[in-house]
Each structure stands twice: as structure tokens, then as C-alpha cells.
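Final paragraph of the annual report: two paired records, presented back to back.
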Amino acid sequence: MFGRRKEKGGATTRTSGQDIELANSREPKPDGVPHKHHHPMFNHNGHKVTKGIHPDGESGRKGVHPHHFLRISARSTSKLSMVVNVLWPFVPAAIAVRYAHPEAHTWIFALNYIAMVPSANLIGFAGQELARKLPKVFGVLLETFLGGIVEIVLFMVLLRKNNDDPASEDYNQLIPVIRAAILGSILANLLLCMGFCFFAGGLRRDEQEFDGAISEVGSGLLMTAGFGLMIPAAFFTSLSGSTEVNTTPAALTEKVLTISRVTSVVLFVAFFLYVWFQMRTHHSIYDAVLEADEEKDHDRHKDLKKAKLTLTECILALVIAITCVCLHAVFLVEEIEFIVHERHVSDSFMGLILVPLVEKAAEHLTAVDEAWDNQMNFALAHVLGATVQTALFNGPLVVIVGWGLGKAMDLNFEIFNAVVLILAIIVAGNFLRDGKSNYLEGALCIFIYIIIAVAAFSYPDPKPGSAGTSEASGVTGEGTSVSGGEKLRLF
């Protein structure tokens, strides 16, 4: 595999991964780091570098200092993120209204929806501060994973709150929301976030370039993930209306559930193989690409001079933010049924648009800020990394956890959602193919996302018993299928 590097004269040369690694070991770093394995005793701000901490992330302090902690956290990663911190008063307000006026369903949903944004923003900031203290590739992977915690929490709360009693009126009503949220998260990253990255970067320069080591691997993984996620839905749709196949609806749904679980395990393995590929066997290529990208950062001199959180403060910020996210996720999910039924918001719009927008807000702000600063490789690493994590880890994780809890969580997506996902992957892959971006491509991605949002808002909820619904699956939380009053054991 090969990586591209920009030379001082502006010409682009291709060097092998081994050449890049040797070059990194000999060339001095601009921050005074002579060798990538040997850090200086003092960093650019004159702080003594702690063993195991990257010089860029050294704070010069230890422990927790409340004044510094609050001041640095309020500053956040960028001006956009700093503005988001104005929403912190919504956090206590959302919790107070939930307990003081539990009947105010719309207010509870709206306040907790807004309160999720600053909480997620703090996770993103603390993750970025923690990533600065670690090696480049591992730091980016960890930062991306921490950004996906909000999504994982929401998925788990939705799954836990789902009613799996077949006799109940709201039987498995949250399963379609989870399925739509999985695809909605991928769409928000691929079209909305990447579109804003291309658009923001294109406003300051005619064209931006990014390395194939970032885009090609991400595109290939997304095609693989899209194929895997769509197989259960394609299997169910092709056989559900067929008169030539000798199978019952219950038996068909049982097979779809089994296929979904096996597919989730395979995608799980693919995700960890992808992490191993980036961190172990090909890390030198990604190190070279990301380090070269840092040199193009217009605000790098300002970022290096900024005060940093200590390791303890990073962990404290993550604990506070994750606690807030969990609370708001629980309160938010409790009101989804009311919003869907009483306010007539469709499952598709709730899952495809509303839930992904709030869970991905912090990651989107970080990626757009990087694109604005001409760090397009970093921006795409966050965009594609988060998308791959949702498709190969978060989505399969909720299926596997549901399997363990005895809940009928499968990948039997609505055909509308499935078609939209495949088209989005194709569109994104086409824009990534040439290794260049501009504001026009970004605007086109955003327009496509707006069209999908309008269609999702108008898309009606399917009738009970139709394809892609929980009633169609007829599978109880105990691993049984219900059809015509008879129960069939799955295993």
C-alpha cells in the first residue's frame, strides 16, 4: 500500500510505507522532536514533558485545578464549540423539568434534546485533549470512539426501553427507531458532515487535497458495511411476498434474525481488523499523513500555545459528560413514543434525522473546524472513522446485545432506508475518488441530505405486519416467533 506526500516544491511524490517510516525516523520535527520515538524533555511552551505523554498534549500541570479546568473547557476546541457551551443551562433545566413536570412530554423531549448537544460537545473536547497526549493514529481512533459513545448510549437505552411483550400495544415499537438511527447516523456523517467539511474548506481555498490512505480504505469499508447491513433486508423482501417458496412468515423472520446476528458478528470482526490495520501493520503510513496534515493547519501555532487539560481533568470531563449524556438519553427515549404518536413524527424522521443530528453534533463541529483550518485528512479521518464505527461496531453491537438480552433486534431495514444508504455510499465514494474537494461538492452533499430529510419527514409509518416492522418479525424477547397464535422456538 502506498501513501502520498507533499514536497516543499509542491510536487507530489509517491513513496512506499517503508520509505515514509524511514523518513520519519530521520527528519527533524518542527516542534523540536528529532525522532518520532524520542520526545524532548520540554515542549514548545517550556513545560517538562511527562513520560508517556506527547509533547503537544503536555499541560505542565498535574491533578485537578477547578479554575483552569472550567476556563479551558469553556474555551473548547473552536469558536463554534465555544458557542455551543452557551447551551449548558439547558442541562439542569432539562433534568429539573423531567422531575418537576413529568406530564410535560414535549418540553421534556425538547429540553433534553438541546441539552444533549453541550454534553456531547464536552465529550468531544475531552476526547480531543486526551488524544493530544497520545500517538497520532491511536489518538484519532480513541477520539473517534469517544465521539461515538453518545450514539452507543442512545442505542442501548432505546434497546433497554423497548417493550418486548407481544401482548402489549407498544410491542417492539422502538426497534424501527433503532434501525433507522443506525442508518441515519451513517447518512449524517457521509452527507451532512462531509458536505460541510468540503464546503467550509472550499470557502477559504479553491481546492483541497486529501490522501488516498484515508479515503480509499474508508470507502472500501463502507461498501463492505453497506453490503452486510442490507443482506438481511434484501433476503426478507425477496422471499416475503413469494408464492414459490415453501416457508411461513414466522420461519422467514426467524431466518432473518439469525442472518442479522451472524452478519453482526462478521462486521464486528471486520471492525477490529480495521483497527489493527491502522494501529499496527500500517500505522507508519497514517502517522506520516496526519503529521503532514498538522503542518498545513493555519491555527497550529495558536493551538500549541493554548492551555491544556491534565490527564486527570480529561478523565473527569469524560465522566461528567457521559453521566449527563446517559441521563438525557434516558429522558429523551422515554418521550419518543409520545412524540411519534401524539405529535405525528414518523419513525423514519425520528431515527434517520432527529436522533443522529443530536448524537453527532460534537463530532461534526470538530471535523468542520479541521476542514476550515486546511486539515482535510484529519477531518476525513473523523468523518469516515465515525461512519465506519457506526456501520461495523455500533450497529452490530446493538444487535449482539439484543441477542444477549433476548430481544428481537435485527437488521431488517425498510426498503426506503436501505436504498438511501446504498445511494449515499455511492455518492460519497464518487466525491472521494479523485482525492480533491471543493465547496460545490460539499453543497451537493448537503442538498442530498436535505432531500432525504424531507422524504423521511413525509414517509408514513408502515402498517403493523408489513416488512421491516416488529410485528412482521413476530419474534418475542424470549427468542420465540409468534404467528397465528402459535409460538415456535428459535433455537
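The closing record of the year follows.
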Amino acid sequence: MAEITAVPDKPGQPPALSAPLLAQAASQSIVREQIITPFDVSGGVDETGKVVAINYDKLIDTFGSKKIDQALLERFEKVTGHKPHRLMRRGMVFSHRDLDLILDKYEKGNHLFLYTGRGPSSDSMHVGHSIPFEFTKYLQEVFNVPLVIMLTDDEKFFHAPKLSLEDCHKFALQNAIDIIAIGFDVKKTFIFIDTDFVDGGHGGAFNKNVRLIGKRTTINQIKGTFGFGDSNNIAEFGFPAMQSATAFATSFPFIFGTNTKQVAKIPCLIPCAIDQDPYFRQCRDNASKLGFVKPALIHAVFLPSLRGAETKMSASDPDSSIYLSDTDKQIAKKIGNAFSGGQDSRELHRQLGGRTAVDIPFQYLKFFLEDDAALEGIRVRYESGDMESGELKKLCAGVLQEYVGAFRKRRAVITGEVRDLFLRPRGLEWGDRKAEAEMREREREIERLEARLAELRAA
């Protein structure tokens, strides 16, 4: 058996623990820490040799972010006037950097914008990819602000030895249609593919910021953050500056204007999965030195693999994922084979109940079932042993079939012309932030007066 070492799983990528290596480590009872990078995600191995699920509380400590607690959720609802998204309510969006400051600025009527992205590694996205975009759409509607979506075909080309640049660009074009089908507002959304935008006629300001950030970033910083070594290609070392540049409003003068002194003050909120945080730690370190506002982040957990909670869905592993192009029959089959938290026998299950913490169909319901009361009812029945694994899997398959089916219908009407409109550099609509803030303050004042009147009547 091959020795487990820190050799990368793929050429040009940082050291990682892939699923086969984790299994090997488990069989040898070798303790390994969890691995969370932009290039690899896997749970660790404990002292008994057991492969364990990702510990998100530990990630908060390791990365130095802050937990989204009940007080912040209440402030979010008070400031925005919107109920927190189900992912926020259930702790699936769990961590942040400076979300509290974004709420302060929003409450005062200041402008902000959203930024998220996708590394196109396949021609169809899976439901794990759709979750961050669905959440981003929610934030766009709540804050009523512009959104920039970056498709990093160049990054995937740099990191994946078997993919050509043409492959990655083709995937980006297909993924753009998938993203649009989530339901984004074309009047407020700009999507760009790196190789098209950077090499096109509108990338001048963007490229300027790439150079400014690049000059501020050392090789040692990149090595320390990403685990790169001497075998990584030079393009990989340079790419973090590109991903950072998108977080600054001055990179897009056709959206935000050419008054760079004022535009540089516009803050950015980045909803993303937690594995993307290393990119933006570098970005935040350099922002103030360049006269920019540090971007804020809001982190989501990973949708776990069908195989178990030790790793996330992977587009390169069809058996671990449910694709947005899957048929109802394929979804039912995959959920039927998903890792279960049920007991080994019907008798034991009725006696001990199901283990929702490790049951993949239940975990998927936490992501996709909107009704909190219905989800709690399912949890109680399954954990008490009243609901068996087969029934739970059938419920989960039905929810995902409805979710994916609705997506397929929306995607079917997205034409190449619609995609090209989203990809065209242009001005985007801005809400009147000052007027919105004043209106919300008037509404809160009315609520305070009504509450005071109620108290006086009761006295």
C-alpha cells in the first residue's frame, strides 16, 4: 500500500486528503486534521481511525471568522425588514466577516454591492452549487443592490492538468445559463467570464486593481495561505489577485461610475462557501493599504456528498452528487443509495431511532425544505423511530425532484441571447438607498408609536 504523504492529489494543487487517502488513513488509524481549502474539502481522521464529519465550529476558530448568532439574525431582520433565509435560520449559513458593519452601512442608507462566483469544472452544476447562488439571489432581493458574478475559467485551467482552456470556457458558458436560471434580475446582475472580460475592452480598471493587489502580495503569503509549493505553476500564484480585484467597486466603472475616490468607499458583501475564505483573507489584508473598504463575507457550509458528511458534493464524482440536469428517476435512485442514519434493523430503528446528524437525506431536507415546522416534524418522527429510512428517503427525493424540476423548466427558456445580455458590460440599476432608509425608519417609528399606544390602552 502506498504511503500517505503530503504529496498533492493532482499535479499543480496543494497538499490534500482525498477520499481514497482518508480511507487509507482510517485503515491505518493515522490521525489527520480536516482539510478545507479552495482546492480540497475533507473531514479528518480521529484517533480511532474513524473518518469524521467537517467541524464548522473549529473552522471558525481556525479561520478567525465570527459565528452568526441569534442576536445577529435578529438585527438582520430588524434592519432589512426580511425574515432570515432558511439557511441562516438553520445554521447552514453560519459564519461571517463584518456582516454587522454591512448592516450598519445599509441602515444608514449607504450603497453596497454583492459579489460571488463559480469555478466552471463541468458543463452542469449540481445542487450543491445552486445553494450559494439561491442564497445570493435572496440577498440581492433583500438589499436591492447590484450583483457581480465571476466565472473563473482561467483558474480552473491553471489548477486542472486535464482541462484545456477551451474546455473551461465552454463550461463557463453553460454554467452561466445555469446561474441565470436561479432567477437573478438582469437589471441588477453582471456576470463575467474571466478570459472574455479581462481580455476585452472593459477590463482596464479591473486589470489595474489586479496589478495593485499583486504588488502588495508576496510569494510567502500565497504559500502560507494556500499551501502552494515550488511545483505549482506561476499562474496559480498570480490568480488570487484577480479574485480579489472583483471585491472592489472601482474594478467596474461602467457599473459604479468613474469617481474612484467615492466609488472606492462602496463596500462589498461576498456570500460564499467557507472554502473560499482564504482568497479573501488575502484580499482584506491588502484592501486598506490600497484605500479600499475591506470586503465583508458570509459563509455557508457545504452540501454533503451522497456518500456521507465527511466531504462535499463533487462535480467530478457523479455518484456523490445530484446534478441540476438529473431526471426524477436518477434523483430517486441516488437518494435511495445515499448514506443513511437509520439503524441496522427495523426493530433496532424503532427502539433507538434514526440519527439525523449523519443521515444524508435528512441533511438535504435541512437545505431544501422551506417549511420549518414540517422539517421539525420529520426530525421528531425519525429520531423517535416512528419514521423509517425508506420513508425519509422518499420524502427527500420528492423535495429534490420538485426543486430540480422547477430549475429545469426555468433553464429551458434561457437562450443564448439572454445569457449574452447578462455577460455584456453595462450599467446596472441602483435603488435609492437614502429614501429606502428613511422609509424604513418611518416604519419603525410607526411601530414604536403603535406599541406605546397599546401599552397606554392596557394601563
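The chain is about 50% helix and 10% strand. This concludes the annual technical report; the extension proposal builds directly on these records.
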